[in-house]
Amino acid sequence: MLTLYDADRCPYCARVRIALAEKGVEHEVVEVDLTDRPAWIYEKNDTGRVPVLEEDAWLLPESSVILEYLEERYPEPPLLPADPGERALARVLIFRHDDFTRPYYALRRGEDGAAERFDEQLATLDATLAAHAWLTGREYGLADIAYVPWVLRARDVLGVSLDRFPALRSWLDRLEERPAVAREVETVAQL
Ligand SMILES: N[C@@H](CCC(=O)N[C@@H](CS)C(=O)NCC(=O)O)C(=O)O
């Protein structure tokens, strides 16, 4: 049995929650209180961070790597494109997600100019999504899962308006029709 060390408010954990739900992987969840982190979490991950996936004594941290692992271990339904070039481009987006999340966290900290910098990132995503329906390519998949937790939190927690980004809004509407993402919207509503 897989165990996910998880925290509702953590968008990195949300990636893993969504991927596990999409693949229908049975697992247990251990909620970690990030405001009072238990000492034992360092035995699971030497950075003390969540998410961590555990199976028997095997431990895997780092959400991007966990997504790749789940894709290899549970290939159905596929969350990466069949075409190697398209797969590679989806991975580039995941590799570069810090470009998107850095201004998000700056905005959360209330830094000057962060709202404009985050809007620039939303505009970049909007342009990508105007060119193809999903960040992963022609189909929904890991790149969409890797970004949507921050977009939901930006909209629903930070109150960022997505009005100027029609392709992004349409993408979010389509994502919210998926039970795995709808569940995350509910989690975010309770933060
Ligand atoms: N690179 C990690 C980042 C995980 C991360 O930053 N998790 C946060 C919660 S959202 C955490 O555990 N923070 C505790 C800390 O940094 O002390 C990943 O992708 O899994």
Helical content (DSSP H or I, runs of 4+): 55-70%
Largest sheet entry: 4 strands, mixed
Secondary-structure element order, N to C: EHEHEEHHHHHHH
> What is the topology, as strand order, of the major beta sheet?
2-1-3-4
Strand content: 5-15%
The average pLDDT is 97
Brief synopsis:
This protein is an alpha+beta fold.
What is the strand and helix layout of this fold?
Blueprint: E1 2-6, H1 11-23, E2 27-31, H2 41-44, E3 52-55, E4 58-61, H3 63-73, H4 84-95, H5 97-108, H6 114-131, H7 142-156, H8 166-176, H9 179-189
Parallel strand pairs: 1-2
Antiparallel strand pairs: 1-3, 3-4
Task: Give your account of this protein's structure.
The protein is an alpha+beta fold and about 190 residues long. Helices cover about 55% and strands about 10% of the residues. It has 9 helices and 4 strands, in the order βαβαββααααααα. The chain has helices spanning about 10-25, 40-45, 65-75, 85-95, 95-110, 115-130, 140-155, 165-175, 180-190; strands at about 1-5, 25-30, 50-55, 60. It has a 4-stranded mixed sheet, covered by helices on one side. Helix 1 links the parallel strand 1 and strand 2. The radius of gyration is 16 Å and the shape is globular. Glutathione (GSH) binds near residues 7, 34, 50 and 63.
